[in-house]
Structures are given as C-alpha cells and as structure tokens.
Design a protein that fits this description.
The complex is a heterotrimer.
Chain A: H1 7-35, H2 38-45, H3 49-71, H4 102-138, H5 140-154, H6 158-169, H7 173-200, H8 203-211, H9 215-251, H10 263-270, H11 282-310
Helix pairs in contact in A: 1-2, 1-3, 3-4, 3-11, 4-5, 4-7, 4-9, 5-7, 6-7, 7-9, 9-10, 9-11, 10-11
Chain B: H1 2-25, H2 31-36, H3 42-52, H4 58-70, H5 84-119, H6 124-138, H7 141-153, H8 170-176, H9 178-204, H10 207-214, H11 219-256, H12 262-272, H13 275-302, H14 305-308
Helix pairs in contact in B: 1-13, 5-9, 5-11, 6-9, 7-9, 7-11, 9-11, 10-11, 11-12, 11-13, 12-13
Chain C: E1 10-21, E2 24-36, E3 41-45, H1 52-58, E4 67-76, E5 79-80, H2 86-92, E6 97-100, H3 104-107, H4 114-124, H5 130-143, H6 162-174, E7 180-184, H7 192-208, E8 212-217, H8 220-226, E9 229-234, E10 237-243, H9 244-249, H10 254-263, E11 281-290, E12 293-303, E13 308-312, H11 319-327, E14 334-339, E15 342-343, H12 353-358, E16 359-362, H13 366-369, H14 376-388, H15 392-405, H16 410-413, H17 423-436, E17 441-445, H18 453-470, E18 473-478, H19 481-487, E19 490-495, E20 498-504, H20 505-508, H21 515-523, H22 531-538
Parallel strand pairs in C: 3-8, 3-9, 6-7, 7-8, 13-18, 13-19, 16-17, 17-18
Antiparallel strand pairs in C: 1-2, 1-4, 4-5, 9-10, 11-12, 11-14, 14-15, 19-20
Helix pairs in contact in C: 4-5, 4-6, 6-7, 14-15, 14-17, 15-17, 17-18
Classes of the chains: A mainly alpha, B mainly alpha, C alpha/beta.
C-alpha cells in the first residue's frame, strides 16, 4: 500500500463491503430457513438481516477457531520470513514484526482470544447467575450480604479495578481470566437478581412456596424457565464486554503474553506499521470488532423478540 | 434523602480506600522482597522494609496512607523513588482536560440524537442509527483510534501523537488532542444515545403523555413540557454513567495517542508493578467514578417532585 | 333534551379500526355508527375487548400506537376528523373535545402542579389567559366539591388521593368548556364509597354546563345513573342501542339480557353450622402487620365445612392480609389460627406437608398465578405428584379427571400453555390446581374481579357446585357485594384492619346495620336510573354549585 487512501475510494469500499454483507446475510438466512425444522424456520425467515449476518459471522469464527491448525498455512509461532513483509500469494496478509505469518496468526487468534473470552464469560456468568438467583429467592441476610459486596466491587470502574488486581497478582492469562471473571460476575449478578426479583413476586411462586416446594425446585423449575430469555441475552452482551476487556488488556500488554497469537497484542506489536499507512495491524482489531458487532446484532434481535412477544 | 445519599457516598469512598489498600496486603509474599528480587540480601530487604514502613501493623500503615492521601501526599514511587504527587499532578490535569473535551462534544450530540431517534422511532433514520451505534459500541477503543489515525492523520489533517506542551494555547491544545477526544466521543456517544432513546421511549408510553396529546398540545410542547421534566432523572443517570465510562476509555486512548495522562502512567506502572503508583491512580479514578455517580443521584433526586415535595 | 332535526354534535358512520399484533393487522372495531347531540350523554358499555375505549378515542380523531382507522367517517360539528389536517384536530382536542382517563394517578403529569395542568389547555388554545384560568380552576374545584379548593391546585398529583385526582381531572377536562367530554371508565379504579362522590360530581358538572358526553364503562348500574342513552358493544360490533329507561326495562338482544340477568343472581344461605361442630378454620384474635405498623387488629372469625364466608371491605381494609396470616406467609404478632381445632404453626415454613395440603389458595390474577412456561399437565399435576405421590399413568389420569371436574375438555387442554387460554379458562386451571391437593379449605382472593361479568358468573357457579360435591369450606375475599350475595353464607365486614360486623348473609343484608356496613351497602350502584338521585337525597346532599 502506498500513500493514504482517498476518501471517495474508501466510501466505495465501504459500500461494496456493505452490499456483500447484505447479500451474504440474505443468502445465509434463506439457507438456514431451509435447513431448520418448521417452527424454527418461520422465526429465522422473519429475522432481520442484521441478525442473520451476525449468525453467519459467528459461524465463520467458530469454524476458524476449531479448525485453525488445519486451515492455517504455517505454525502459530513459526518465523517464516522477513519482518513486515507485504501481502503476497505466500503470505496472504504479509508478516508481522518478528516475521511470522499474519494470516496464520489471525486464525490462531480466533482460537486463543475467543476461547479465553468464552471461558471467562462462562465463569463470570455461572457464578453471577447462580448467586443472583439465589439472592433473589432466599432473600434476607444472604441477599444483603451479596448485594452489598457487589455494590462495593462495582463502585470501582472495571478496567481500573482489573489493572489494580493484575498489578498485585502479576500479569498472566490465568490471572486475567480470574480477574475479569470476578469483575464481570458482579454485573451478571445484578441482572440475574433483578430478573429473578420480578419473577419471585409472581403469585405462581407464592403458590409453589405455599405448596412446600424446596429451593431446588423453585429455582430450577419455576424461575429459571422464565428467566432464560433475558439471561441468554445477557450472556451474549457479557461476552462482548469480556471480549473487549480482554482485548484492551492484551493491547495494553497486560493480558495474553507473547508468543501466543492474540488479536489485542497483535495490534500492539504491529502498531508502528499504521504510521506508515499500512492497514494490516487493523485486521486483528477489525476481527475483534466484527465478532462483537455480530454478537450484538444477534442479541439485539433476541431482546427485540422477547419484548415484542410480551405485547 | 440527599443527606443520606451523601453519607452513603462518603462510606463508599471509605470502603474503596480500604479495598485498594487491602488488596495490596493480599499480595502473596513480601513486597520488599518482590521489588528487590530474589538476589537481595537479608539486610537490604529488612532495611527496605523499614523504609517502606512495612514493619508496622497494617492498620497503622493504612491510617498513615489515608492521612497522606487526604493532604495530597500519595507516598513515593517504588520504581524511581519520586513523590507520586509530582508524577500525578500535571497528568491528572491532562486527563481531565481530555475527558472534558470529549464530554463537551458527546453529551449534547448524544442527547440530541437520542431524542430524535425516540421521536421518529421505527423510521429509517431510527433503524440506521440503531445499526450504526450498535456497531460502534462493538468496536474496541483502539480500533476506532487507529481508524481515525489512518484517515485523519495519514492524510495530514491532525497529529497522531498528542504530545502537548504545557505552555501551548487552548486552540493549539484542542487541535493536538482532537483525535483522542474524537475517539472517546465516538465510543461514548453511541452508548449515551441508545440509553437516551430507551429512556424517552419508555416515557412516551406513559398515560400522561397520551393525556398531553389529547389536550391538543403541539408535539414540541408534549416533549419539552411533559416528557423532558420526567426524563431528567434517567437522562442524568445516562450521562453520569457514560462520563464514568469515559474514565475507563481514557486509559486505552491515552496509550494509543501517547498522551501524557494519568491512564498512561497507570498502565506503565502496572507493567513495572509500581504498586504505590497504581494504588494512587486507582484511587483517583475510583473517586472520580464514585463522585460522578453520587452527583447524578443527587441531581436526579432533586429533579423528582415526588421526593422533593413530600405528601 | 335535543330534537332529531338538529345537526348532531358528533356523527360516526361505519367506523372501522384495525389493531396490530405480532405483525398482523386485525379489525378491532367492525363498523360502528354513533350519533350524539349537544348536551346529551351516551353510555358505551361492553366487556373487555368490546372496543369501547378505541371508539371513545376515535371520537377525538385519535388512535393509540399500533392502531389505525381503516374505514368510515367521524364528523364533529361539521368537521371530518378523518380527513382534517392534524393541526385542525389538535385545535379541537382539549378545547372542544376533552378526555377523562381511567387512572387519574397515571394520567396527571407527576412533574407539574394540578393547577398548571388545568391551565394548560385553555391558555394554549387561547380560550382564556392564565390568570383567568387559575381563578376558573378554583371555581371548578369548588363545584367538583374538592376539599380546600383554593389550595389543592398547588399540590403535585402524588400529594392528592385517588378519588380527588379523578375529580380534579374532570375539572381539568372542563377547563376549556368543551362541547364534548369522553369519560373512559373514570371510576373503575376507585372503591365503591369513593365512586359515589365522583359520580355525583361528574353528573352535576355535565348537567350544569350542558356538555355532551360519552361515558365508557363495563358497569351497567353506573352507566344507568349517568347516561341518557346506552349503546351496548360486543367484540367491536354494536349489539343494541336504546334510551336508558327502555334499555334497563326491556333489553331486546339475548346478550344484553344475559348481562342484566347476572346482576340478580343470588344463592339462598345455608343453615348455620351447629355450635358443637368444630370449625375447619378458626381465626382467633389475630393482630399482624408489616414491620412496626399493625395492619390487623384482633381479628376473629370461624369458617365451617361446606360453608362460604365472605370477607368484605375496601382497599386497605386488611382482607388480603388476613389471608396471608392464615396461609402462614405473614406470622401474626398475636393470636393464632386453628385448623380443625389444632393450632397451626405461624409460618408456612414450619407447617408439615399435610397442613399445607389442606389449605389452598386461588388468586385474583390468573395471569400471574400460573407459571407461563409450564403446561397445564404440569401445573395441575405437580400438586398431585407432590402431595399424593402419584406418577406416570395414574398421574395423567388424575389430571384428566380434574380437568373434567372444572368443565374443560382434557384432550384439548392438557398440553396447552397458560398463554393459550382465555381469562376464564385460566381461572378454572387455578381452581383445578387448588383441588388437586384435595384440600378441606380454599381461600378465594378476589377470584372474579378481573373477569368479565358473564365469565365471572360461570366461575361462581362452578365454585358453588364444587363446594357441594367436595364438602369444601371457602373463604371468599371480595369488595363486590353482588358477589357476596351470589355465593356467601356468612359475611365478615372489615375496615382499617378490624372486623366491623359479622353474621349470616340474610341478616347482614337486612337493616339495621353498623354505620360502615350501611355506607358500604348503600354505595353499591343499583340497576335503576334514579338510584343515585334517591341516594343523594337520602344522604341529604344538595347538588353542588347552586
């Protein structure tokens, strides 16, 4: 790439990319509707294009993450040539600051970055949701204790708290997972508790309590089915937040450590290229953005459906 | 009501200071040993411990630390032995300047767009803005920042490195920090606009708005006289939440643009494990965050006639 | 009264309105004609889903979000409201046509004082200046018999009680001296004793200013007091229309007749239980409350097998709190609850399975009483499995039996979700769930107040039949004396957490009464166009403003 791209050309690029996205999304939606069973098919056919685009992107990322070693032309940490080589037929996207294949590292990044974000979200979500539901159902001192603790933890901005904890614990992937999971579980707790609180006041819960049902039945059979939709949406949103936090930490050099291929650190390592007008370092950042956009689109659709059905 | 909230705010600040101090106490092993490394002799470690005051009981050290902080004395940096107050002083001002700059652009912009989207909800404008904001929420801050650099800095419009000279005039300062401020604006506006839209739509569904329309009032009067006074509380909260979010966003943006702010200092100190500096920075960020939320709560209490005019 | 030669004030012809649900448009008003002359009051009655409010709003040229007018014409004093530009319609609203909403508490803007909201329409429409409007407000507040008319306008909505707010809203509707006011169920949310005052005030003011009105309600007795003519709607279509006297005396259509008949339903009282018989439930000197403030004071009454005790009172009288004490949700601070002569543990947590099984509850809102994610099979089957240990085929068999008992076809209903049932069917499922535990005693908490009259009637008949077949004791919580008349054997009247009076139903409905019971009984509107006049005369109240 030589020199800055003129504005009009970028506008054409954006329009082209947009058109392709719309086309792909429409095609994918039709395909899904054909493949799915009757009931689901109707839901899918009425899905907005943004949602089917989101689903398509997520599918592509999952495939990339699962089959990275099979697709990738080189090894994750393999030095294959000179530094900052331009794009060509061997190194599709050139090489990075140490001469590793950019395309290969992007694929492995899907596995590492998305995988770690997924594990972290899972941890945060299970801890937060279980405690949140429990606090709402049991109430009393347990609720007070958990809620006040969460209040205090949430009084410190998330990234700042993460930085503080990472200084104390030292920067490593495991520590980062634990720290982010802890911080985000407080947000999940808030939501799960609020959702469950709205359900707990319903007469059918009172009826179940008066019947003599135990905690297990109350939470699993009576509350959870009704809380499922907002909780699934929260999982999606939470994933986005976690994913962005992890990327930010890695970008700051405090998350995943080299030589692991990770999108956040890839941006950081190759940032110097940007000042020479090369957009390659934007690719991993774009990869992060694209997945978050996709998940947000799908969650937005789900939330819209959940609220629309209530009317 | 307000007094109670203020009291709660002070309590929160106290608990946070305790938490930030206590977290360091949880550090596995010995701070002095940690800093000096395994090669240090027994005597040097012991001397260093005395110098840090580590031989005193925890509560005494906490009181001494808190007493110092209240008077603006944050102790000395472990990395270079300089007083932290000196390190922080100018940088804090820079960070506040940047955050304020972004807020001044973002708040009116977001409120205006949010109200417009709520008024013309489900129109093409609303849908387009929904997709655009959802997309920009999903972008990591550094992605936005680098895109701006590619388009606005490579083309020579604005500098990509926001070094500022303390003696520079305001115009010069605004010009040099335009890109970081724009990055923050873009990230925060989307959030704030979506929340404003949701708050207004929620309000427009209430019976008293229908009543106002049935009185034959003009749409502008319905919004300004009937919706807005009631939307004040939610909007204040939206703004506060997003200004608080600016604080976290500032960290990453400062690193990208090499801006000499508090965020960059904190990130540097985390990598150096300069705990006393991290402690001080975390405390300042957390206080700003708590105070913003406190201010929002007090303002929204004052805007609610139910709470101001008792029965 | 007006004559037919005059041009009508409002003329609606073949009005069709569509509503959108789940992305599809369907007709909710199917060709309504309506004619209203100056100074005339038209009563619009019907059950839920009749389209009354939709028609009322359409008379202002207004539709709610998600609705659209798809056919017909609306002419107000020569202006076609369908084709008139929005500006012109806006000039009529709040000026020549005003609206009084069901819930004044929600329809007043919480951020402004009452008087500012009063002045808004006349000032904005240029009817009068602000100072004149404020003086006028005080005058109208006085005519509406609001206490403290000089100052009440300077309060915020949350500082004024429900009945007063409703009167303030009527005053506000009058502020521009409109030709037409739409009253949309203005007294539905109020207690009976408050309702009287509001009805009287509304009627006076409408008469004084000779304003035309459309009075929308589901309560026949109320509309009989207010309207010159009555129009009955059913599912968006007109059933019949006649002047009030004719409509009350001789309705023509079967649907209208059935609505009328429900009102007169009454069951004879069963003979009281003998003194030697142990009551199923005995509430003894119960005092209870939330936190420091006691809500119940020394409440005592007995409920015997095969008998129905109606607990009557207005909102805040403590009738639901009594139920919470009996079920063990709220342990009393003094007194006890005996079951078949043995004291129950105060909290439901310490009661054993059998004690819990014996006392069941049916709720007011069937919507929130059934778990929306459970199928009928599970809703009814769970107590059977939980208490009686049935499973597999025998469980299904029992659920089917219970469905037949509540007159729902088992094959059709057993695998449905609550969202696939109508309101009355949901309430039947609630009954079946209570019966599934095979209890001796059931608390019915306002079980019919959320239902339309005909459906409610069906539920009461069912409960009555089940009582005979299964020897049940009922505690019936209600604010509606028609329900008491229909189902009770004994009546307990409560006020402010105390039992005011109790005894057999026949005796209770016969004077002399305790003063509060008297007030309560006399406040229930009767199906007689002159009832309100008579009552006000008896109470010695002169119409206001004279």
């Amino acid at each position: 790439m030589n020199g800055p791209t003129p504005f009009w050309l970028s506008a054409v690029y954006v329009a082209l990319v947009f058109a392709c996205a719309v086309g792909l999304a429409a095609g994918f939606r039709a395909l899904l509707a054909l493949a799915a069973p009757a009931g689901l098919a109707r839901t899918l056919r009425t899905a907005p294009l943004t949602a089917s685009f989101g689903l398509l992107v997520i599918l592509v990322y999952v495939i990339a993450a699962l089959f990275a070693p099979l697709i990738a032309p080189f090894g994750e940490r393999e030095v294959v040539g000179g530094q900052f080589l331009p794009w060509d037929s061997v190194h599709l996207l050139g090489t990075d600051n140490l001469g590793r294949d950019m395309f290969t590292r992007l694929l492995y990044g899907a596995r590492n970055t998305v995988g770690v974000a997924f594990i972290t979200t899972g941890l945060a979500f299970s801890a937060g949701a279980v405690l949140g539901l429990l606090a709402a159902v049991v109430g009393g001192w347990l609720d007070q204790l958990l809620s006040r603790t969460v209040d205090v933890l949430m009084a410190i901005p998330a990234l700042i708290f993460a930085l503080l904890l990472l200084t104390i614990l030292g920067t490593s992937v495991v520590n980062m997972i634990l720290v982010i999971a802890l911080i985000d579980s407080t947000r999940v707790f808030r939501l799960a508790r609020a959702v469950a609180m709205n359900i707990v006041v319903m007469d059918y819960i009172e009826a179940a309590r008066l019947r003599g049902e135990g905690l297990y039945h109350l939470i699993l059979r009576e509350i959870l089915p009704n809380a499922a939709a907002p909780l699934v949406a929260e999982f999606g949103l939470r994933f986005c937040f976690v994913f962005l936090s992890i990327s930010a930490l890695s970008f700051l050099g405090l998350g995943m450590q080299p030589p692991t291929a990770d999108w956040g650190s890839m941006v950081r390592e190759n940032a110097t290229l940007i000042t020479f007008g090369d957009v390659t370092p934007l690719l991993p950042a774009g990869a992060i953005a694209l997945l978050t956009v996709a998940v947000n689109f799908v969650v937005d659709w789900m939330l819209h459906r959940a609220s629309g059905l209530k009317e | 009501m307000v007094a109670r909230r203020l009291g709660l705010g002070v309590l929160t600040l106290f608990v946070i200071s305790l938490l930030i101090f206590g977290a360091v106490e949880l550090l596995p092993g010995d701070l002095a040993q940690e800093i000096l490394g395994q090669s240090a002799t027994e005597e040097t470690v012991a001397a260093f411990r005395r110098e840090l005051g580590l031989d005193l009981p925890a509560y005494q050290r906490y009181l001494a630390w808190l007493g110092g902080v209240v008077q603006g004395d944050f102790g000395t940096s472990l990395a270079n032995g300089r007083p932290i107050a000196d390190l922080i002083g100018v940088r804090l001002g820079n960070t506040l300047f940047l955050a304020l700059y972004a807020a001044v652009i973002a708040v009116p912009l977001a409120l205006m767009l949010g109200i417009l989207a709520a008024l013309y909800r489900n129109s093409l404008f609303d849908r387009a803005i929904n997709v655009v904001t959802l997309t920009s929420i999903s972008f990591p801050e550094f992605f936005v920042a680098y895109i701006l650099i590619v388009y606005l800095s490579q083309t020579g419009f604005f500098p990509s490195i926001a070094r500022i000279d303390p003696d520079a005039g305001l115009g010069e300062k605004l010009y040099r920090t335009f890109l970081p401020a724009l990055t923050l604006t873009l990230v925060v506006t989307a959030h704030m606009m979506r929340m404003t839209r949701a708050a207004i739509i929620n309000l427009l569904a209430s019976p008293y708005i229908e009543m106002a329309r049935l009185k034959g009032l003009s749409p502008a009067r319905v919004i300004l006289k009937h919706a807005l006074p009631n939307a004040l509380a939610p909007i204040i909260n939206v703004v506060a939440l997003n200004l608080a979010y600016l604080i976290t966003g500032v960290v990453v943006v400062e690193v990208v643009f090499v801006y000499p702010g508090l965020g960059q200092l904190m990130v540097d100190s985390v990598s150096k494990r300069d705990i006393t500096v991290v402690q001080a920075a975390a405390l300042i960020f957390a206080c700003a965050y708590v105070l913003l939320n406190l201010l929002a709560d007090v303002l929204s209490t004052l805007s609610n006639p139910r709470l101001v005019h008792k029965r | 009264m007006t004559t037919a030669e005059q041009t009508p004030l409002l003329e609606i012809r073949g009005l069709r309105i569509e509503g959108r649900s789940e992305g599809r448009w369907s007709e909710i008003v199917k060709g309504i004609d309506l004619t209203l002359h100056r100074g005339e009051v038209l009563g619009l009655i019907g059950e839920s889903g009749a389209g009354k409010s939709t028609v009322g709003l359409a008379a202002m040229g207004f539709t709610r979000d998600g609705c659209r007018i798809s056919g017909g014409s609306i002419r107000f004093d020569g202006t076609d409201l369908r084709s008139a530009p929005i500006r012109e319609r806006r000039r009529l609203r709040g000026n020549r046509i005003a609206y009084v909403a069901q819930s004044a508490a929600a329809s007043f803007n919480p951020a402004h004082r009452l008087i500012d909201q009063y002045c808004e329409a006349p000032v904005q429409h240029g009817v009068m200046g602000r100072a004149a409007a404020m003086a006028d407000a005080v005058d109208l507040y006085r005519r509406m018999r609001l206490p403290d008319p000089e100052d009440i306008g300077f309060r915020y909505p949350h500082q004024v009680s429900g009945g007063q707010l409703q009167r303030a809203m009527t005053a506000m509707a009058m502020s521009s001296r409109p030709d037409l006011i739409i009253f949309d169920e203005p007294t539905t949310a109020l207690d009976v004793t408050t309702q009287i005052e509001v009805l009287a005030a509304i009627r006076d003011i409408v008469e004084q200013f000779d304003t035309a009105a459309i009075y929308i309600t589901h309560d026949l007795a109320v509309v009989a007091q207010m309207a010159d003519r009555i129009k009955v709607l059913l599912q968006g279509e007109e059933v019949e229309e006649a002047d009030t006297e004719t409509m009350l005396a001789s309705p023509r259509q079967a649907y209208t007749k059935s609505l009328w008949a429900v009102r007169s339903h009454a069951r004879p009282e069963r003979p009281p239980a003998g003194p030697e018989e142990t009551p199923v439930v005995s509430v003894r000197g119960v005092t209870a409350g939330y936190g420091e403030i006691p809500v119940l004071h020394d409440v005592s009454f007995d409920i015997h097998a095969r008998r129905t005790v109606a607990v009557v009172g207005e909102s805040g009288s403590g009738k639901s709190t009594t139920a919470r004490v009996i079920t063990g949700l709220l342990p009393p601070s003094a007194g006890e609850v005996l079951f078949n002569g043995t004291a129950l543990p105060p909290s439901y947590r310490s009661r054993d399975k059998d004690q819990l099984r014996q006392a069941q509850m049916i709720y007011q809102m069937a919507d929130t009483a059934l778990n929306p994610k459970h199928r009928i099979r599970e809703i009814i089957g769970r107590p059977v499995a939980f208490y009686l240990g049935l499973s597999g085929k025998r469980l299904t068999e029992r659920v089917r039996e219970l469905l037949s008992l509540i007159e729902l076809e088992p094959d059709e209903f057993i695998d449905r979700l609550p969202s696939e049932l109508s309101g009355g069917q949901k309430q039947r499922i609630g009954i079946a769930r209570a019966l599934a535990a095979e209890p001796q005693f059931i608390i019915c908490d306002e079980v019919t107040s959320a239902l339309d009259q005909l459906v409610a009637e069906g539920i009461l008949t069912l409960l009555d039949r089940l009582q005979g077949e299964l020897d049940l004791a009922y505690m019936f919580i209600t604010h509606d004396l028609a329900t008491v008349r229909a189902i009770a054997d004994e009546v307990v009247v409560m006020k402010e957490g105390k039992v005011v009076e109790q005894g057999g139903k026949t005796e209770m409905f016969r004077p002399p009464h305790d003063p509060y019971t008297e007030l309560l009984l006399s406040s229930v509107p009767e199906m007689d166009a002159h009832w309100l006049d008579r009552l006000l005369a008896e109470r010695g109240e002169v119409p206001a403003g004279e």
